[in-house]
UniProtKB/TrEMBL annotation, chains A, B:
List of residues binding ATP: 124-125, 150, 214
Higher taxonomy: Bacteria, Bacillati, Actinomycetota, Actinomycetes, Micromonosporales
Ligand binding (Mg(2+) 4): 32, 46, 77
Organism from which the protein derives: Spirilliplanes yamanashiensis
InterPro entries: PurM-like_C_dom, PurM-like_C_sf, PurM-like_N, PurM-like_N_sf, ThiL-like
PurM-like N-terminal domain location: 30-140
UniProt entry keywords in alphabetical sequence: ATP-binding, Kinase, Magnesium, Metal-binding, Nucleotide-binding, Thiamine biosynthesis, Transferase
Underlying gene: thiL
Molecular-function GO terms, alphabetical: ATP binding; magnesium ion binding; thiamine-phosphate kinase activity
Family in the record: Belongs to the thiamine-monophosphate kinase family.
Binding sites annotated in the UniProt record for substrate: 55, 265, 309
Positions bound to Mg(2+) 2: 48, 77
Catalyzed chemical reaction(s): thiamine phosphate + ATP = thiamine diphosphate + ADP
Protein name (record): Thiamine-monophosphate kinase
Pfam families, per the entry: AIRS, AIRS_C
Amino acid sequence: MTISQIGEFGLIQRVVQKLEMGPTCLLGPGDDAAVVVAPDSRIVASTDVLVEGRHFRRDWSSGADVGHRAAAANLADIAAMGAAPTALLVGLCAPPDLEVAWAEELAGGLSAEAGRVGASVVGGDMSASPTLVIAVTALGDLRGNRPVVRSGARPGDVVALAGRIGYAAAGYTVLSRGFRTPKLLVEAFRRPEVPYSAGLAAARIGATAMVDVSDGLLQDLGHIAAASAVAIDVTASAFDVPSQMRDAASALGVDPYAWVLAGGDDHALAATFPPDVDLPSYWRRIGTVTEGAPEVTVDGKPFTGRTGWDHFR
Amino acid sequence: MTISQIGEFGLIQRVVQKLEMGPTCLLGPGDDAAVVVAPDSRIVASTDVLVEGRHFRRDWSSGADVGHRAAAANLADIAAMGAAPTALLVGLCAPPDLEVAWAEELAGGLSAEAGRVGASVVGGDMSASPTLVIAVTALGDLRGNRPVVRSGARPGDVVALAGRIGYAAAGYTVLSRGFRTPKLLVEAFRRPEVPYSAGLAAARIGATAMVDVSDGLLQDLGHIAAASAVAIDVTASAFDVPSQMRDAASALGVDPYAWVLAGGDDHALAATFPPDVDLPSYWRRIGTVTEGAPEVTVDGKPFTGRTGWDHFR
């Protein structure tokens, strides 16, 4: 059954049934707008668009996978401000021949991922479109925390990372070469495991800057370096490369550190902390902030290419 | 100059320069997420997607026009809850050959329309896409008001309308027949004039239900009738049909009441009020709420077609 067979209102009815409203939702789908709690009196908000063929492929990921990924990418932005996600709003632009079941799975994936952090899909919109596009907006509450922006890193600060890194990029490479395993890597691409609570914890223990690693660690640390006018040096030995990633890299002729340092889609969190910080175990030290021109180096040497680990070794 | 020539970051830099941040914006574009004031401790949020060829045409509307319309459609949803708009977030999916100037105009239009109500475009995202899609999320603050939902209308209530109606639908018909005048109607389609403050005022004087008229007055009143389990009767003589609309209708062989009663894109606000309400002049009475099956009639008779004024006369 396709969307064109049941129409917009039929589709909305089915999709809304896949959504579970949590306590942050005061008024859910069905009115002109939703109403969401904002106890802090400041709201954190971020939007991401996902375009088929560019951000996801239906032959690589199920509707539920795409829902999880779309939600995760947005919720990670909220976590990276040191806030607790409260709500998602979703705009779905879909070709009329899209299977209704796919849209239902998408809604289920979005709702399930939001539910992991106590957030809900509170509203949305739908339209026919030649291109399948999913636009997600995430809202969050600061819970009294100062928002952790990109511009607060200071020379002497510790650089730390929470969450997995390189897994999703490895999974993407595996899929793009036509393989479906190793499952660890492929699943990491399909459904990133975002360390949501590490964002809130970082704000509480005094993170000076934080960023969601969506474009690759070095590039995203570069945003902190630029905004804070500092230099950042990363220590390559700080990263564990699991055996499955090492084996896949070897089989595909790729340097695994290219995935780790330049791959983005895990939505890990990277942050800077004062040097005397007592880091919880899920934040691991990966480098230091120094004075100097705003650049990011690895073991003291510049990184010169997108996947060019060889270039700076 | 096209988007592909300057890239995503070049485009973001140019577009952000077109945005003006007002006092509701605590942290604007450039970080993982924006931060917006929410003094009421409840946030009202709504998303609309606009797809080229479906919601707008570049040969009918300038980039600035589309920006105004996209913002207005979303801000009207916030006003229809009885809230004050605070922020917009915008996802832009654009073909690489889109002119940069068009995107800049779009941003300028979005920002200018938001500025009319003291809101700001606080964040967004961009991606390449074969189809031009604009996804807008609007946020608003209830300022201590109870949210005005669709389900609160009661038999005996007065039905009232704020804002113009039929103008945008008439402008759309004029444009779709290849004309560019009358300017009054064409401009009403390009840049709707939404009675934003009437929404907040309605909440304060006790509106029992309210809706943004986006799909046509009778259809949108039908949402109130269904949600409130009441019948609504509209009085045709309550509507002024301006001479330019009457003349255009006559020239095009259309019944102007089809535009007024079934045309949506003006984003007027329709609401119900207790019978003893003292309505301000910009809310005009157009009908009554009665007991009965949830339907909307005109002068006591059913409306049977989308543009079928003749069918129920």
